[in-house]
């Protein structure tokens, strides 16, 4: 069904309330969960929030829909504002007035994303209609990919994928001509030719800025011609469409200035670096000239955010190294008027993900990785690290939105290995309470693991290394088999969070114990630990995994050492192939599973979408300049030692680790 139908639509509450008995948690249960995003306060009084809710078709899970939802904080009353229609998705919304929301949606008759407006009644709790019909604001022939609205509701920025030197309409005309001519070939004359999951065939994501105003009937319209800030430049901002344009763009307090991030990738020479720069634009100047404020830094500058009270001040996250290894993320404070730049909290040896201003502009909130947990800190003085206060302690807390009147209050999303995402309220007395319970009926009908433990052991270089133990469900017969999960990255961690894809609860509910090791190179344990993998791609992590498995088998006597399976994706998949070639390690496993893993490092260096990836970890620009660096830890060189059965999973549109890597490994296994 492609339309809303009362016989076809069920919330997961209706579906699970209809089930009589409990059952062990399955991957289908994970897929049936509502996904909650982007909670935002009422912009004036902060007495309610609006958030996004994605729901899935209960019967076959092949359809989904995302709608805007309203919640009153005092009563927890909820209202679904936009009608859930299969295949229709609302995203990136801005509550700019008490009665006005602007958002992106593919509800247009063209079925592509456009800007819509929602006009809210004075009292949503007494809404007379079941849903509010959105008003379409834009009617472009191309999809609008990102949206950001200034605080005053006088300007907005949107993203569109265009040819660098063509307008939206001209780009569409070229698309149409190519389609009419059955155009099926492309010419490339520089790197990169593809990114993540798509080819870079010419069009790029460009930010457009336009003035808007409210008509007499309350609806908004464009009051100027949109300006393409990157017109004529073969570059993107953002690199690809994201769920939050605020990660890459920002309006100043007055709405008269704009900042954006772009990668300087106009020529092939720039693929050797990770140089992302921040540009500012004075929107009152007719030329809309972009001024680079970070071009002196050859590393990554990202997440710019203007002060909510001062047009001259912005903060951003910065990495100083350009290619020879991930550096620690620093918070930079920048004064636009005099180009003064100050690194704040300089001695903070933590993994910083995001910074959110308070409405007063005198403090901000940090989302930080701390020993495999994503936690929230508050900073009341930008230049005094002693005033850094930790507000959450477990799980994954993110997506902060601060109350418009009282900056001690904020909403955020929270999840853990034991619980899916919900929206929470942090109050004045530091109390935290959940606001949403969309998945409660589902959770009441499934049996899941209720026990997770952190453990540590002495790993490579005699360093302390941490891991997770996720227990099987209580009814599992002992001794239990073990899933030895190897995370990807490699410079990430297996965080205490809910995963809708590789959900470890699905294995625990099948009777597996799960062991996860945050090996050398993992983030959130200090920069030295993260950097330790450089030049040690297959050594220190391998040693940690071996020692960690030995420790876990001794520490948890209920697990069966003769029934262990290793499973990894991306770098984890590489490590599975590497383990397969080490007989002393490989024989510890009954079977191995590699999901989009790297099989041949040298071939990977020539085919990976991001050439700079190999510079990060091996320290060389050209693969031919020092081939021995790749061969030292190359799984293809040890295929003769392979002996254990293996499952290989590939994705045809994975251009980070191309499918030929998995096909090559499969060929090796079949030849054996």
Automatic annotation (TrEMBL):
Residues 498-670 form the Peptidase S9 prolyl oligopeptidase catalytic domain. One of its GO terms (molecular function) is serine-type endopeptidase activity. One of its GO terms (biological process) is proteolysis. It comes from the Eukaryota. Keywords: Hydrolase, Signal. It holds the Pfam family Peptidase_S9. This is Peptidase S9 prolyl oligopeptidase catalytic domain-containing protein. It comes from Rotaria sordida.
